[in-house]
Amino acid sequence: MVRVGAAFVAAPVFGAVAIPLPVRVSISGAIGVLVLAVHPITPPHDIFAVSTILSVAAEALVGLALGFVLQIAFAAPMVASEVIGTSMGLGFANSVDPQHGASTPALGTFFSVLLTLLFLSVDGHLILVDLLVRSYDALPPGAAWMSAGQLKAIALFGGYAFFAGLLLALPVGFLLLCLNMVVGMISRSAPSLNLFAVGLPASLAVGVVALAIAFPAMGDYMQVIVREGLAATQSLVLG
Q1: What would the pLDDT profile of 165-199 be if each residue is shown by its tens digit?
Q2: Within a 13 Å sphere around the CA of 126, how many CA atoms are in the beta-carbon half?
Q3: Could you count the other beta carbons within 10 Å of the beta carbon of residue 217?
Q4: By the 8 A CB rule, do 230 and 124 touch?
Q5: CA-to-CA dists, residue 59 to 5, 37, 142, angstroms
Q6: Which of 233, 44, 71 is nearest to 153 (CA)?
Q7: Can you tell me the distance from the alpha carbon of 1 to that of 9, in angstroms, rounded to the nearest whole number?
Q8: Separation CA 222–CA 42 (nearest Å)
Q9: Cα distance between residue 233 and residue 215, in whole Å
């Protein structure tokens, strides 16, 4: 249960604050019992031995790593929402994110819910469970310490959240950038048409229309983000 439970703590969907702790513990126990049928594990003779404690810590490290990689991919919509929301003037509009239970931009919460639905629609949660079960072949219990190369790959994948977030925000963000430049030139030539009188309503209107038009392309790229996250998780398991 240690590896599975640690993965569910860090992974999206399973680690959402809306899911009660008893449910997560029950799912971890059920999957752990099924894993025992495929990968028999010999119980240690001394539970409190140093080697046993290190093995448990290694199991927790592997589970956290597998779940954290997916969590990095799910951070990309938050980056995109910050870029778009600030340009639209919606930086002040916050709501509670159902994944983390923290206050986030309202646009980011919408993107997060959309990415979660796409993750579930491609059976990402089942793929994650399958990768957890298969990880016992590549990283057997008792010898599951992750190598420096695997930890480095996780750190380098952290840059993908910023890269994917900027690409996700590129269509709408570029249009809003051009609009702000035009509004800035107009306000210089006609001071009465200042940023708050004309720029904010125009940014909101253009931003909403641009989001409506760009939603199909953004949805397609969110599927790419899901696939990249699952591929990075699989690379940790299968190398």
Answers
A1: 889 988 888 888 888 888 778 777 776 666 666 77
A2: 4
A3: 12
A4: yes
A5: 10, 18, 8
A6: 233
A7: 12
A8: 42
A9: 27
Assess contact for 13 and 71: CB atoms under 8 A. Answer: no
Per-residue model confidence as pLDDT tens digits over 83-123: 888 888 776 666 666 666 666 777 888 888 888 899 999 88
Q: How many CB atoms lie within 10 A of CB 237?
A: 20
Q: How far, CA to CA in Å, does 120 sit from each of 20, 128, 131?
A: 19, 11, 16
SS3 annotation, the chain: CHHHHHHHHHCCCCCCCCCCHHHHHHHHHHHHHHHHHHCCCCCCCCCCCHHHHHHHHHHHHHHHHHHHHHHHHCCHHHHHHHHHHHHHCCCCCEEECCCCCCEEEHHHHHHHHHHHHHHHHCCHHHHHHHHHHHHHHHCCCCCCCCCHHHHHHHHHHHHHHHHHHHHHHHHHHHHHHHHHHHHHHHHHHCCCCCHHHHHHHHHHHHHHHHHHHHHHHHHHHHHHHHHHHHHHHHHHHHC
Contact present, 103 and 38 (Cβ < 8 Å): no
User: Across-strand partners of 94?
Assistant: 105
Half-sphere exposure of 93 (CA within 13 A, CB side): 15
Q: Write the CB contacts of 109 (distance below 8 Å, at least 6 apart in sequence).
A: 95, 96, 97, 98
This prediction's pTM: 0.80
Are 80 and 168 in contact by the 8 Å Cβ rule? The answer is yes
- The encoded tokens of residue 233 equal 């998780």
